[in-house]
Amino acid sequence: MKKIKLGMIGGGKGAFIGDAHRRASRICNDFELVGGVFDSDYEKSKEFAASEGIAPDRCYPGVEAMVKGELARPEEDRMKAVAIVTPNYLHFPFASLLLKNGFHVMCEKPMTMTVEEAEELVKLVNQKKLTFALTHTYTGYPMVRQMREMIRSGMLGTIQRIDAQYYQGWVNSIIHGAGSRITGVWRFDPAMSGVSSCMGDIGVHAFNLIEYTTGLEIKEVLSDLNPIKDDFTMDLDGTVLLRFENPKLKGVIRSCQVATGEENNITLAVYGSKASLKWAQENPNYLYLLTDSEPVKVLKPAHGYNSEFAEKSHTMPCGHPEGIYEAVANIYRGMAKSIRGEKFFPGEFPTVHDGVRGMKFIHSVVNSNRDGNMWKKL
Amino acid sequence: MKKIKLGMIGGGKGAFIGDAHRRASRICNDFELVGGVFDSDYEKSKEFAASEGIAPDRCYPGVEAMVKGELARPEEDRMKAVAIVTPNYLHFPFASLLLKNGFHVMCEKPMTMTVEEAEELVKLVNQKKLTFALTHTYTGYPMVRQMREMIRSGMLGTIQRIDAQYYQGWVNSIIHGAGSRITGVWRFDPAMSGVSSCMGDIGVHAFNLIEYTTGLEIKEVLSDLNPIKDDFTMDLDGTVLLRFENPKLKGVIRSCQVATGEENNITLAVYGSKASLKWAQENPNYLYLLTDSEPVKVLKPAHGYNSEFAEKSHTMPCGHPEGIYEAVANIYRGMAKSIRGEKFFPGEFPTVHDGVRGMKFIHSVVNSNRDGNMWKKL
Amino acid sequence: MKKIKLGMIGGGKGAFIGDAHRRASRICNDFELVGGVFDSDYEKSKEFAASEGIAPDRCYPGVEAMVKGELARPEEDRMKAVAIVTPNYLHFPFASLLLKNGFHVMCEKPMTMTVEEAEELVKLVNQKKLTFALTHTYTGYPMVRQMREMIRSGMLGTIQRIDAQYYQGWVNSIIHGAGSRITGVWRFDPAMSGVSSCMGDIGVHAFNLIEYTTGLEIKEVLSDLNPIKDDFTMDLDGTVLLRFENPKLKGVIRSCQVATGEENNITLAVYGSKASLKWAQENPNYLYLLTDSEPVKVLKPAHGYNSEFAEKSHTMPCGHPEGIYEAVANIYRGMAKSIRGEKFFPGEFPTVHDGVRGMKFIHSVVNSNRDGNMWKKL
Amino acid sequence: MKKIKLGMIGGGKGAFIGDAHRRASRICNDFELVGGVFDSDYEKSKEFAASEGIAPDRCYPGVEAMVKGELARPEEDRMKAVAIVTPNYLHFPFASLLLKNGFHVMCEKPMTMTVEEAEELVKLVNQKKLTFALTHTYTGYPMVRQMREMIRSGMLGTIQRIDAQYYQGWVNSIIHGAGSRITGVWRFDPAMSGVSSCMGDIGVHAFNLIEYTTGLEIKEVLSDLNPIKDDFTMDLDGTVLLRFENPKLKGVIRSCQVATGEENNITLAVYGSKASLKWAQENPNYLYLLTDSEPVKVLKPAHGYNSEFAEKSHTMPCGHPEGIYEAVANIYRGMAKSIRGEKFFPGEFPTVHDGVRGMKFIHSVVNSNRDGNMWKKL
């Protein structure tokens, strides 16, 4: 199948989110990165484009130039979709420009700075009949999708309580100690990031996971936010009480960016009158089904008991975490270094000598058993 | 950087190992699949090549034809490396043919059928000065590499005991019950698979992990293997006692393909006189450091305490399992379906409407807090 | 050392809390149960007293009779302390009567029905200089005590967030389905139980754990409670926002009695500017210490790194959960049944035949090794 | 019910096994410790007896004196059973003397020094029709008993593989470093301990668990043992291959006393053709049921799905580890110290002030909710 031509705005050298988008687009194998505006500094952008093998004439000095340049190309050669991986305040102007000019958009979250901008994008998408996707990453996990399918099947009974958590600790080392670096981090500048740090950056993922898995709309919130430091204006921590249409269902979102030592601890528990489901991102392949009277059941990918949607969302056999692809990729990377004559770490890929050792092992083992469990030299 | 042109032998439609190699090569982004022999049935091979966007003239009817065809091309356009993902008995003939003709080789394990074949490959690699890599996949995990670096630094003291396990259960459903399918599975045919099933297919990974992480050579083995069924000639289960140069170090490998319900349960524990390290594949980001007098320490990727080799072997920030790329890839896949007008699952990618919901959440939360923890409608 | 003579009010046949108090008093070996009022039905009380080996004349028809009877005894033979394990509304009248008459009191929580009653008890305790203990059970765990000592040492830095959870599911099966049994359960009758079910019964433990471990006072609360069912007046679920003296510290208590499938899931996480501590009751021997830059550390009992208080709070060597005493007790129980000629389960205690098997195993193993790893028959 | 009068041999001051026996006998409440020989040094024995409240005339200078003294008492006042908690070489002489004189015996494992002694005890037990129990402690855990019942019901199908482990690390600090203390530890003196250290002390527990849970007899063993140090004659580490009546079932026991950092890591996995069961001692309340096609099931105590034997083997409701009794006992202990005017740790028991705090919490929470989620002061 022909690949969809993809552009990118932002995501230049050192940008981890841009790298994640490129890797993901290569993994799914439906897209081909053909151009973009990778850095606000055009020279850096060109350098980065070259390192990625992008044709020089498709590394543009700005988004308007990119739109103009791509529209000038024959349709079959033109970018079809563009990924926006810039700081938040640029999402709306770039997304609306792209949509107006007929490009599909993959956008980082939070989608915009204001509700009004967000609603403006809805209008544009509807009017242009284009595809707009938002990277609420965690909805892509197989067992989150399985959770959604199970909840929507009604098997939990009436939902009675929802509890979501998103705890990180990385802001700690920025705000404490001698080299306090609040200024200079765009995420802490309301002009670039929006009205909220903790809730805007991570709490919104917890919010999204609740609505994604349960299909229920959160109707009202009551929040208690904490800037942690006197000289800080945005929230770095907070708890949000939730109300739904059913007044007998209550919920809570807890989110923190200064939970020292927490890495990316997202959890979701949905408690129903008949059963409950619990999931935690740091071990994303485990989904726990609890009932009052049965043993706890641990669901994992690659089993017939999962829904079609969950099963179509992974490719590995059971027991192989999806990260195993990155393990194999590391071996390919080592091999590439060797082929190119670059320096590589000892052990960066198994060699023909490891192959010999393996064959000696297999044959010695078989011979030891054949000869009545005798010691055999390798 | 220019990508290395890659060929593939085997790995056609439905072959999970071939798919894993292709994904891995795309993730590391150093290779470009340009041709191959994907199936012994040429028609199927061509069909598969087309689906992968391979130029028709580089889908060859056989390996000799491929070698000839590629050598006829100008060097800069020629395949540089070939991945062999066929059944075991074909590894040696294809690998030796490729090496003799100057191609680098990525080969599935076990490398060959016999020790003699393996040693023949060593000679060829040395003679031709080519790169030969073997997919002992688990050596690609960051924390396995960290384990290697820690052990080799000597921090465990004298190693006293080594215990490796590789338990799977998938053969169970093949050998038991009405539809016993021993025949027809190439892995159970010694002519295609070699002298061993359990030890050749999985035990050898445990063996490799021991030598990889410790740098110690296993000198002698004593094994006890079990074919489980009377009409079965290969081992499906076994225990192997290990001897090393130091007579005061002993070890054991336990391996089983009929451990009902086990998925891909590989574990490695290395016990030293000063400290010990434990790792388990199903949660590959956790490495446990044990001592007699300190709390157990849990090491994870993306921390300054890891070695350079381990840190260069992953790309995500802490708390993000590498499988998160596949989650994002799933979202890209959903977007691609939408762009192409294909049917997709509800929830296959977050849309602009999710973006509006998110913005309402963020603003309501901030307003609730600002107004003294009042309820706010979304 | 002479044992302290103990009385008990409540805790008759089938009362799990009373049984827990008796077992605990036997384990610590400082008390001897000599009498009490075990049931409001005197006949049942006497029957129960007999089964426990209590002298008939110390099984009293009521608490006033008990006080009178005991005071009539010579001081060295008299009850010194009384455990109150009745429904909540009886705690205050019995505790105040006992204190006024010079008895030390061990009381179940919640201590009283109202704040005023609670303060009245404080006055009495101060005036009489007696010991009054409340069974906030979880403060007795070694690693909770270790958590307290570590937090109070200041090693966490400034505390930034506190998150406590107490989730159970047992009320589910009572309130849902045909046999809804709200009436008849004393815990759901405000006249016997107090103003709250979920918060009064379990939320208060989470509250206590926070103040116990951190030494901080909770100054203000904002709560959102849920009765779950229309015909139910008490809370079965709720979230409580917490304020402390430091306005930059916030916290939350989440508590639920209808979290289907949860058993007794109490967790406490205290996040400081330098480090954090996490504990969960269902695996009470594990205390997790998190920092931004070091591996997660898992502290367990019976190690030199623990505080004196924690180490004095357990007796087993490391790796032996305290529940191992109950395992040995089960073996003693089996032996007692056998001695008494009662029916016992096969396997209820290991016999002399198991001893023979063990000796054969040990000797065969030693002989096999001595003879060069040969098979030896048992 | 009247308590059975119990004597004890060994288990004086500082002896952890003796303490465990006494606690267990108090927990089950069927026994009353009335006398014994607690130390080979009579003065120390008397001192210890006094501290335990044993009548001075029942603290005997030796076992023969004890037998004589007790036989001289009226039968209803006499010891019925005696617990032997001495070093191994004394088990046989004391057990045989006691049995010959009509006492029931609770004996520590390993039962004797030789197979012949063990068989002699069988004869005596049969002849005297007395109860003889051996503390294979782990058979007392509820979920081990549940494992036994499930396996014996046949639900695993044909058993195909058995894997047991018992890893400890405590011997490490004894044999390494400056203060090597091999001599002086009775467990390392074959004259007191027997032919084996690792297998005799802990491997035999793994052996026992296999036979206990499966009901299968181990027919033959092949072992590979390791003394670790040149100057050491006993095994501190070893692997044992197992043969059963069914030649298609194989198994392995792995045992080590120098597995640095391991505490008391006993695991048992039994793999059948239909299902498998896995258990680990350090979290003894979790039993894992694995099948090829269903989610992993986690069984825990206090559920209707367990067998009667398992359910009769614990007393707490679900989610309360049995060690919770020790937590309550710690609170009782703190109260006792206070009553006796001894020094206690701050926080050793919750006081009346904690009770006031709790009541303030409960009422403030209820009031906050009643008044529309307003902040309320405590």
Write the layout of secondary structure elements.
4 copies of one chain form a homotetramer.
Chain A: E1 4-10, H1 16-28, E2 31-37, H2 42-51, H3 63-71, E3 81-85, H4 91-100, E4 104-107, H5 115-128, E5 132-134, H6 142-152, E6 159-167, H7 172-175, H8 190-193, H9 198-214, E7 220-226, E8 237-243, E9 250-256, E10 265-272, E11 276-280, E12 287-290, E13 296-299, H10 308-311, H11 324-339, H12 352-370, E14 376-377
What labels would you give this structure?
homotetramer, 378 residues, alpha/beta, Rossmann fold, Dihydrodipicolinate Reductase, domain 2, 3 domains, eight-stranded mixed sheet, five-stranded parallel sheet, 12 helices, 14 strands
Describe the structure.
Four copies of one chain form a homotetramer. Chain A is an alpha/beta fold. Chain A has three domains: 132 residues, Rossmann fold (3-Layer(aba) Sandwich); 159 residues, 2-Layer Sandwich (Dihydrodipicolinate Reductase, domain 2), CATH 3.30.360; 47 residues, no CATH class. In chain A, 35% of the residues lie in helices and 21% in strands. Chain A is built from twelve helices and 14 strands. In chain A, strands 7-8-9-6-10-11-12-13 form an eight-stranded mixed β-sheet, with helices on one face. Chain A has a five-stranded parallel β-sheet with strand order 2-1-3-4-5, sandwiched between helices. In chain A, a hairpin with a 6-residue loop joins strand 8 and strand 9. In chain A, helix 4 packs parallel to helix 5 and helix 6 packs across helix 9. The first copy, chain A, is globular and about 80 Å long. Chain A starts with a strand and ends with a strand. The model of chain A has no long low-confidence stretch (mean pLDDT 94). Chains in contact: A-B, A-C, A-D, B-C, B-D, C-D. At the A-B interface, helix 1, strand 4, helix 5, strand 5 and helix 6 of A face helix 1, strand 4, helix 5, strand 5 and helix 6 of B.
